[in-house]
Design goal:
Layout: H1 3-14, H2 20-31, H3 34-55, H4 61-72, E1 77-79, E2 87-89, E3 93-98, H5 101-117, E4 121-126, H6 131-139, H7 145-150, E5 154-158, H8 159-162, H9 171-187, E6 193-198, H10 207-220, E7 226-233, H11 239-247, E8 251-256, E9 259-262
Parallel strand pairs: 3-7, 3-8, 4-5, 4-6, 6-7
Antiparallel strand pairs: 1-2, 8-9
Helix pairs in contact: 1-2, 1-3, 9-10
Length: 273
């Protein structure tokens, strides 16, 4: 082990985080290197100084209570698989504004991949890309996708069979579809439900009914161990449409300056149309 390697391990060595073998390698180097010995003493003195300073700092009781409360709810949080969101709580309802097939895959694939790893029932309602394209894109990052499919942990539906099963959009029936999938997740001992629906099929004639459905879904979501992303084609939405969608979702995400970001109505940020 040379000086560069030793310096890399010094902090962990002081914190007792190294394996026995790593400790022996560091200590063997320190026997014959005064420079690294000096660096070790500097880091040890700095560590003690920081600890002494921290002992003098007292957090407000309100902060302590808030931290304790959030820690007690740790099992309510899930990895979203989306950098723009990171951790989210069960019951989170998200809107994605997209323009291309690649946009869909870039956000929805890691989102569903994370759900499969976390033992969640995952549902992808496809539109704009075919069911086969969705499967192929997910298979690239999920080597055992076919096993997940065989046990029905990941399920794919075309938008016509989910949203338009009777030849028209029935808000109550579609909401029941989602609730039934949540119940299916619980009955099969999954951690919860992770679902995404692509709605580029949505026509003006169905817009108001669909917004009412979205409002009802947003009200139901917090009561269940479920996560949902609704993907809207940005160039099919007017500014008023975008505002309505954002009003009915906890988070809204769009590609801005080349990366996915949260957008907020109070800052007047909007996706490119």
């Amino acid at each position: 082990m040379d000086c560069k390697d030793t310096n890399f391990y010094l902090c962990s060595y002081l914190d007792g985080e190294l394996t026995s073998e790593e400790c022996r390698d560091v200590e063997e180097h320190l026997k014959n290197c005064q420079i690294c010995k000096n660096e070790l003493e500097i880091q040890r003195a700095m560590k003690l100084f920081v600890l002494e300073c921290l002992e003098k700092i007292t957090a407000p009781d309100s902060l302590k209570k808030r931290i304790s409360f959030e820690l007690s709810r740790a099992d309510e949080y899930r990895e979203s698989g989306i950098k723009a969101l990171d951790l989210v709580r069960w019951g989170t309802h998200v809107a994605q504004f997209y323009n291309t097939k690649d946009d869909l895959k870039e956000l929805l694939v890691p989102y569903l991949e994370e759900g499969l790893k976390d033992n969640e029932l995952c549902v992808w309602i496809t539109d704009d890309i075919s069911e086969n394209e969705a499967k192929e894109s997910l298979a690239k990052v999920t080597p055992h996708l076919w096993e997940y499919m065989n046990k029905k942990q990941i399920q794919f539906f075309q938008h016509k069979e989910w949203y338009l099963a009777d030849g028209y959009f029935d808000a109550g029936k579609v909401l029941n579809n989602a609730i039934n999938k949540f119940q299916e997740a619980l009955l099969n001992d999954y951690s919860g439900l992770r679902i995404t629906g692509v709605v580029s099929w949505l026509e003006r004639s169905d817009w108001n009914a669909f917004m009412e459905y979205e409002r009802n879904l947003d009200n139901v979501m917090p009561e269940n161990k479920a996560l949902a992303i609704c993907a809207y084609k940005a160039n099919k939405c007017t500014s008023d449409n975008i505002s309505e969608v954002m009003d009915r979702h906890k988070y809204s995400i769009s590609r801005l300056d080349g990366s996915w970001r949260q957008i907020k109505s109070d800052t007047q940020s909007a996706p490119s149309l």
